[in-house]
Amino acid sequence: MKILFDTNIILDVLLLRKPYCGTAAYLLSRVERGDIEGYLCPTTITTIGYLISKVKGAGEARRLIQNLLNIFELTELDKSVFKSACSHKIIDFEDAVLHESARLDHVDGIVTRNGKVFRNASLKIYDPDELLAILKTLT
Fold this sequence. Notes:
By secondary structure, this protein is α/β, with parallel strands linked by helices. The chain has one domain: Rossmann fold (3-Layer(aba) Sandwich), CATH 3.40.50.1010. It is built from 7 helices and 5 strands. It has helices spanning 7-14, 21-32, 42-56, 58-71, 79-86, 93-104, 128-138, and strands spanning 2-5, 37-40, 73-74, 109-111, 124-126. A 5-stranded parallel sheet has the order 3-2-1-4-5, sandwiched between helices. Helix 1 crosses helix 2. The longest helix has 15 residues, at 42-56. The mean pLDDT is 95.
């Protein structure tokens, strides 16, 4: 199962955002174990770098990014992704870029806490608890 993790799921773990960090951390652990092929959009990496450096400093941000790069694959991000996102029915441009990057990389779905903005998605959109329940049935 190839799943793109929305930026908010990663930030839930890195910033220990309650009540979401427990489920998000469990999903990341399933990526580490190889139960999920985890993907991030490259824009997630830059967003995390910026936000984490503001909270925890640039050195810690780079360390955390390196850890993410060790367990996640990155989707492709080129001009065609941005062009496709510009004409997509997903209104939020950042989310349209995430979706199109995942779609063009043949990812099976996206896990996010912000499913409402993905209502025009062609990919399967998972709430973290929904994906957690699916994974528990597979083990």
